Amino acid sequence: MVVVMQERATEAQIDAVIARLIELGVDVHRSSGVTRTVLGVVGAQKIERALVELLDGVHEVLRISEPYKLASRTFKPDNTVVTIDDVRIGGDEVIVMAGPCSAETDEQVDASAAAVRRAGARILRGGAFKPRSSPYSFQGLGEPGLKMLRSAANAHGLKLISEVMDVSQIPLLDKYCDIFQVGARNMQNFTLLRELGHARKPVMVKRGIAATIEEWLLSAEYILAGGNPDVILCERGIRTFETATRNTFDISAIPVVKKLSHLPIVADPSHGAGRRDMVAQLARAAVAAGADGLIIEVHNDPDHALSDGAQSMFPEQFEGLMGELRIIAPAIGRSLCQQPAPRFGGSR
Ligand code: PEP
Ligand code: MN
User: Fold this and answer.
1) Which residue has its alpha carbon closest to ligand 1 atom 3?
2) Separation of CA 48 and ligand 1 centre (Å)
3) For residue 31, which of 92, 74, 88, 89 has the smallest C-alpha distance?
């Protein structure tokens, strides 16, 4: 249920409505838009609509028909913008996150970070805990990997996103990263999602390999219901009968999510394609379709990468793609970070 307050509702009236709803046994999430305050009411308890409609300052009470409530546009008509200092995900600028699949060595992480920054990425990606299909594949370096990623992010003026696979890893990731990444395989790890609802940093939830959009939005709902409003969705391809690509990149998920939800959506064409010669095409299409950001695997030496080398771009390829995206973004009223000016005597 959503309680839409009158445009001129006072703080005292809003507080009184919140207090009454809590008394009735439900949780209340407040969203203050440009003109009105909206209260999202969630909980198992059924509340009689008329009871709330009669309260002072209430404009109307709506039922949300979708199973997810706080993630829905009915609850929050305005787009959510996730802000990390000067990086705004969900605003006019298309935010590019890029970097290696996994942290491997100091040199590899630093060279990859320098390259993606030079091309205009704002956020460094890189995993230290890797969910691999085989237990014999490289599993990530753990904390030493996070240290490499953090120091490269700092050195090159980038924010950092890294995957958290388990509740027990949250404090460690919290120490190093700016955004928690929930991988496709963990999209329905409800214990993890609940715990991230109490985190003070944004969480990016990748779509599960066989998840419907509704299930994906319900996963976001777990985090929002825990009190963390900074959730980003990421389309990374789903499993279908098609075998020509690693996954089937669901471009239509972008406009569907934009219609159903206020949350920003990022596209991952690397895992979508599984091959570097198709990443640029999907990335361009995702931006044209309205994605708020991209997450792209870039490695300084992809042919020797310890994970996902075939889908990792060479730095020059990535730079070429960024140039193309700078032409596409303005055509749909968006922008893309300019390449940073080379610093005299510096390596950036
Ligand atoms: C990754 O980002 O490297 C990754 C493992 O992604 P996904 O969870 O989408 O497979
Ligand atoms: Mn990967």
Assistant:
1) 101
2) 44
3) 74
